[in-house]
Amino acid sequence: MRLKSTPEAEDPDDWLWPHHNDQNEWMRYGAGLYLEETRGAIVRRNRGRRSQNGILLDSVTDSQVYDNDFSFLSGWGLALWRSSRNLICRNRFDWCVRGYSHGVYWRGQDSAGILVFEQCCENLFVYNSATHGGDGFFLYAGHETLQETGTGGSNRNLLYRNDFSHAVANGIEATFSGGNRFQENRLEECQHGIWAGYSYETLIVGNEIHRSAGVGIAIEHGHHNQIVGNRFSENPVAIRLWWSPNSQFDEGPYGRHHNTRSEDNLILGNRFLNDRAAVWLRDTHRTQIVRNCWIHCGRHVVQEGDCAGTVLRENLSEAAPGWEPPELEAPVLPELPGEQDPFLPPGAKRGRRYIVIDEWGPVHPDELPD
Question: pTM for this structure?
Answer without folding.
Answer: 0.97
